[in-house]
Amino acid sequence: MKNLKNTYSELPKEFHRSINPTPVSKPKFLCLNRELANELFIDTADENKLLQYFSG
Into how many domains does the chain fold? Predict the structure, then answer.
Protein backbone atom coordinates (compact mmCIF):
# COMPACT_ATOMS: atom_id res chain seq x y z
CA MET A 1 0.00 0.00 0.00
CA LYS A 2 1.23 3.47 -0.83
CA ASN A 3 2.64 5.53 2.03
CA LEU A 4 0.65 8.77 2.05
CA LYS A 5 2.82 11.47 3.61
CA ASN A 6 1.00 13.74 6.05
CA THR A 7 2.72 17.11 5.67
CA TYR A 8 0.30 18.77 8.12
CA SER A 9 2.10 16.96 10.92
CA GLU A 10 5.20 18.97 10.05
CA LEU A 11 3.43 22.29 10.66
CA PRO A 12 3.47 24.06 14.05
CA LYS A 13 1.22 22.42 16.68
CA GLU A 14 -1.42 25.16 16.28
CA PHE A 15 -2.33 23.64 12.90
CA HIS A 16 -2.95 20.03 13.90
CA ARG A 17 -3.58 17.60 16.72
CA SER A 18 -2.45 13.98 16.85
CA ILE A 19 -5.17 11.47 17.70
CA ASN A 20 -5.51 7.71 17.40
CA PRO A 21 -8.09 6.53 14.86
CA THR A 22 -11.28 4.93 16.13
CA PRO A 23 -11.62 1.45 14.59
CA VAL A 24 -14.73 0.87 12.50
CA SER A 25 -16.52 -2.44 13.06
CA LYS A 26 -18.08 -2.86 9.59
CA PRO A 27 -16.48 -0.41 7.16
CA LYS A 28 -17.93 -0.01 3.67
CA PHE A 29 -17.35 2.24 0.71
CA LEU A 30 -19.92 4.85 -0.17
CA CYS A 31 -17.96 5.64 -3.30
CA LEU A 32 -14.61 4.42 -4.59
CA ASN A 33 -12.93 6.58 -7.23
CA ARG A 34 -10.81 3.93 -8.96
CA GLU A 35 -9.49 6.41 -11.52
CA LEU A 36 -8.10 8.68 -8.79
CA ALA A 37 -6.79 5.69 -6.83
CA ASN A 38 -4.89 4.57 -9.93
CA GLU A 39 -3.41 8.07 -10.34
CA LEU A 40 -2.21 7.82 -6.71
CA PHE A 41 -0.81 4.32 -7.40
CA ILE A 42 -3.23 2.75 -4.91
CA ASP A 43 -4.15 -0.82 -5.80
CA THR A 44 -7.94 -1.26 -5.75
CA ALA A 45 -7.99 -5.00 -6.49
CA ASP A 46 -8.57 -6.03 -2.85
CA GLU A 47 -11.42 -3.87 -1.53
CA ASN A 48 -11.33 -5.47 1.93
CA LYS A 49 -7.66 -4.48 2.30
CA LEU A 50 -8.51 -0.94 1.18
CA LEU A 51 -11.35 -0.71 3.70
CA GLN A 52 -9.04 -1.76 6.53
CA TYR A 53 -6.34 0.68 5.38
CA PHE A 54 -8.64 3.70 5.20
CA SER A 55 -10.82 2.93 8.22
CA GLY A 56 -8.11 2.94 10.85
Answer: 1
